[in-house]
Amino acid sequence: MGGGEGQGAAGGAAPEGASRIALSAAATELLRLLHDQHGPLMFHQSGGCCDGSAPMCYQAGEFRTGASDVLLARLTVEGVPEPVGFWMSADQFERWRHTHLTVDVVPGRGSGFSLEAPEGVRFLIRSRLLTEEERAGLDG
After folding, report:
1. pLDDT given at position 115
2. CATH code of residue 78
């Protein structure tokens, strides 16, 4: 799973081994660093253009979520005491509901609003289609 366990989009627990989202080793390491600097964290992905298509990392509660957002997972990060919520706009989720997402880190500068920006790296999403078994476990 690469550092993350999640819940299904509707907030119910996903079957063991099934998830919509995971973290790469680099993302896990960066989240530990950001947590040490900023405290509890959250992600939001809006699905807009440019930086809006990248996951944005905020201090937990700094970005207000609402009825137009879906909680994809509460990610467990080794070395971080509380889960990191990963939210996505409902419109984006409708387009990506059949994909498994991995949060990763690459060199470069993302949005100035995301906490990793001063570190000279940015979060990004790597995706693949869910297998039939994964889809059945998550949507069933």
Report:
1. 95
2. 2.60.300
Residue type, 30: L
Of the candidates 22, 16, 24, the residue with the CA atom closest to the CA atom of residue 4 = 22
Q: Let me know if residue 139 belongs to a domain.
A: no
With respect to residue 118, please indicate whether it lies within any of the assigned structural domains: yes
Which residues constitute the domain of residue 108?
21-134
Is residue 36 domain-resident?
yes
| pLDDT (tens digit per residue) in 38-86 | 999 999 998 766 555 789 999 999 999 999 999 999 999 999 999 999 9
Average pLDDT over residues 3-24: 57
- Whether 72 is in a domain gets the answer yes
Residue 91: helix, strand or coil by DSSP? Answer: helix
Q: For residue 53, what pLDDT is reported?
A: 72
- Predicted TM-score of the model (pTM): 0.84
| Residue 140 pLDDT > 70 | no
Answer yes or no: are the C-beta atoms of 69 and 88 closer than 8 Å.
yes
